[in-house]
Each structure stands twice: as C-alpha cells, then as structure tokens.
C-alpha cells in the first residue's frame, strides 16, 4: 500500500516529539496549539473507520465545555454514537506515534482490523466556534484527503447536529434529511405535533431565556427560532456577539458554580436554560421571589422526562421496560425519587456519554442523563415498532393519542447523543402539556446540597477508581480517608475521579446542609492534594 501522500502531508502537521496525549472522556482535549497533528491523524483514522464500517464517519472539532484556548476532537460512529471503545486504542496509538512511526502504526491498524483500502469511504466534518477550530478542521481534512477519501464539510454545527447528519447519512435518510435544515424541520415538526394537545398557555409560559455560552448553540438556536414561533418565544443571551466562549457562562459554569451565568437578565420565576460550548448539554434554572437561585440539572431533566414517558406507557398499556442511567454525580435525592417513588430501575455508569449510552441500550426505553445535563432517551426498535402500530391500529382514541405523543417524543429526541436543543424542546413540550411551571417541576424532589471542586495534581493518572467511579483503589489510603471523612456528616457521600477532559482531579460531595457539603468537599480535596501529589496552593475552604 502507498502511504506516500500520508507521510508527505504529515510533514505539514508534524507531531511535537515526545508529546503524548490520552484519549479521554470524549476524545482528545488539550490546548489548541498541541492538536494540529492529532487532527490530521484523526482525519486518517476516520477514513479507516469509514472503510471498516462501510459507513460515513463523523469528526467534530470541539472542546465543548473547556475554555476557549482549548480544543479537541470527537469521532462519531455510523449510528451517530461515540467512537466504539476498541478503536480508542487505535486513536491513542496514532495520535502518539512519532513521525517516523506513523506508517507502521497506520499499517498495523489496517492489518489488525483487516481493512480493505479499496472500499469507498466518506467523512463528515463539523466544528464549533472556537478561533482555533477552523484551522484544526482543515488539518482533519488534510488527513481525509491524504487517504483519498470522500468527505463533506458541514462547517459550523453543534456536536449533536453532526451526530444527527451522520446517522441520517447511514440510514439512507430514514432518521431524517442529512442537513442542518433537515434537523430543524424534523425537530420543529415533532415539537409542534407534540404540543398541539397542550392547554392554551399564556405568553409567560411560552417565554424561555437561553444562555448560549457564547458558542455554536447560540448561532444554531437563532437559526432555528423562526421554526418554533409562535409556540416558543426565545430570548437569547451570551450569543457570542461580545463575550468569550464558556467564560462565566454556559451549562458547566452554572452547574458547577450553582449560580446564574453572567450576561443574563433574570426576573423572579422566569424559566432559563444554559447550553454548553458545543450544545450537547443543557441545564435549567430560575430565581425565586427571595432572589434564591434554583438549579434543575440533568437529574431533574431525567426525572421529568421519565415521569412523562412512564405516564404515556401506562396509558398505551405496552409492556416495555424502562430504565434510567446516571453517574456517580447524580444527586442522592434524584436516585431515591426515581427508585422509590417512580419505581423505575436506576443504574450507575462511569462518567462519559459513551458509557451511559451503552447501558441505556439494554432497555426498551433507556433514559440517560449525567447530572451536568448531558443526556437523551433511547428507544429500542421493538419499542418504536410497538408504539407506531398503536398509532395506526383501531385502538381507542385515548390510546392512540398517547401513542402519538410517544411517537412525537421519538422524533423530537436526538437518539444519537445528548443534544441541548432537542432536550430543550422535549422539556418545553412536557411543561406545556402538563401545564407545569419551572417551580412546580423543581418541587418534584429536593436536591441534597452538594459541591464539586477541582484539585490539580502532578499526574492525575495516579488515581484509579472502581464501582462506576464511586470508590478509589489508588493511591493507597485515599479511599479509607474519604470513608472516614464521610462518616462525620449526615446523609453524606463523596468520591473523586480524574477528569478525562481537563488536567484536574474532580471532587464531589453531598450532605445534609450546604455548609457540610462544602466542608466535606474541602476536606476530601485536601486528602487528594496530600495523597495524590497535589501541586500549587493548598485547596482553600469555601
Ligand atoms: C464530556 C463528556 C461528558 C462528561 C464531561 C466531563 O462533556 O461528553 O460525558 O461528563 O466531558 O468529563 P470529565 O469529568 O471526565 O472531564 P463535554 O460536554 O465537555 O463534551
């Protein structure tokens, strides 16, 4: 095989000697200036994956919630899912091969995966609004061109839009038309069909304020707005016209800081939401008459959506099993509510949509959400078929109506991956249909006070976890220390894990009061600092 062009073009995307990067929670992610060679090589890998699967493969240039200076890459598999985990190793080997090893590593992947280089391939490329994204997506393109593959450059798109078009392309349009306009048409039609039955709500209920994180989500929601009027009236803040991407705004900031983003004008009782930097996460919030901030995160979203779906399933009387998948970050109150009140089985997966998605596929209807607002609902083929049959058959009017609503949810939810825009429309539709205010939704259960902190250590790989990241097995003594600290507080829980997107260790704690959650999080941070090689200043009390 001739890899001449690959090596020739690689000279324009040289790997800095000695630099090694790890495939993390959602692909490679680091400072943008270290990523040119990675992008080129992910272009190459996407072509190989495309040949192997005989499908279109997606490459999204984004670092999502990370600061503007960072960038990253997410690879999208044929049905719109994240790259299959067995290929993460190929990605790591390829990204870390020194220039002189590139040919060997590529040839090894081709051999190991028995890839026929004669097979046609096609790569779909997308990017977010970061200043570095355009050039990095050109590097991806160079990799694709080096292996003489077909491609389509979708330009500026949200990550979920790229996942959507990849799935559409590989299902011959059955999932929808493979364009951004097709995405708007599909979602807005399903949204309108779903809310058709809702009681007439006032203008107040129809208004939603959106914090676009100064990112791609803001651009895309602006494009979509006209498709949603007059049902939904959107007010967009942090639209990218002045502020910096994810700076003091966006879903991650709001969730971690537990406060509103800067740049949003919030009136008491008004429903607001924040997207993250590539619009695959969403959180809701409002402030009450006493100016108190209330956050409705991924756990509250999962509860709202699964309660709604369960209600419809009872009406249609289908014996479909439904499960909810969360991570260790899920608030203890949400898990108890789902299990004890709603009687829905709940599972805990490792952080990262790839893990949650996988688990959710085991159910007829799998609802998965990370507390940070990343999630969706998956319907099995059986579930989709049974629901569709009921919409056509001579079932009673009530059953037919409920089945129709479920079908609209299937069309509205982006089943390929968590999607801020799609999730927002599902939530808005449920609130309309149930005539629920954001306050009433919030009252479903009360979150346990919690705190998330970050600790910088010299090498975060010294921490190893087990039990879906709820316990550490390394370094020695850390878990014992956490256990001892947790015992001193009521209703307390805490865990630590190395982040797969930032160079930090994440600390989570919850307890009966905010003071206790804060104190526990601080004490655990100190334990991490001392036992796992903390660098810089000691973690300070909150
Ligand atoms: C990515 C993943 C999420 C994960 C988040 C944080 O989100 O897709 O599943 O929760 O990173 O991961 P970590 O704690 O390992 O840094 P995004 O929105 O940044 O792509």
UniProtKB/TrEMBL annotation:
Pfam families: AMG1_II, AMG1_III, PGM_PMM_I, PGM_PMM_IV. InterPro entries: A-D-PHexomutase_a/b/a-I, A-D-PHexomutase_a/b/a-I/II/III, A-D-PHexomutase_C, A-D-PHexomutase_C_sf, A-D-PHexomutase_CS, AMG1_II, AMG1_III, PAGM. Residues 481-525 form the Alpha-D-phosphohexomutase C-terminal domain. GO terms for molecular function: magnesium ion binding; phosphoacetylglucosamine mutase activity. The keyword Magnesium applies. Mg(2+) binds at residues 64, 276, 278, 280. GO terms for biological process: carbohydrate metabolic process; hemopoiesis; UDP-N-acetylglucosamine biosynthetic process. Residues 206-283, 297-435 form the Phosphoacetylglucosamine mutase AMG1 domain. It comes from the Eukaryota. Keywords: Acetylation, Carbohydrate metabolism, Isomerase, Magnesium, Metal-binding, Phosphoprotein. Gene3D superfamilies: Alpha-D-Glucose-1,6-Bisphosphate, subunit A, domain 3, Alpha-D-phosphohexomutase, C-terminal domain. Residues 51-96, 113-169 form the Alpha-D-phosphohexomutase alpha/beta/alpha domain. It catalyses: N-acetyl-alpha-D-glucosamine 1-phosphate = N-acetyl-D-glucosamine 6-phosphate. Substrate binds at residues 370-372, 497-501, 506. Its EC number is 5.4.2.3. Pathway: Nucleotide-sugar biosynthesis; UDP-N-acetyl-alpha-D-glucosamine biosynthesis; N-acetyl-alpha-D-glucosamine 1-phosphate from alpha-D-glucosamine 6-phosphate (route I): step 2/2. Its cofactor is Mg(2+). Catalyzes the conversion of GlcNAc-6-P into GlcNAc-1-P during the synthesis of uridine diphosphate/UDP-GlcNAc, a sugar nucleotide critical to multiple glycosylation pathways including protein N- and O-glycosylation. Belongs to the phosphohexose mutase family. This is Phosphoacetylglucosamine mutase.
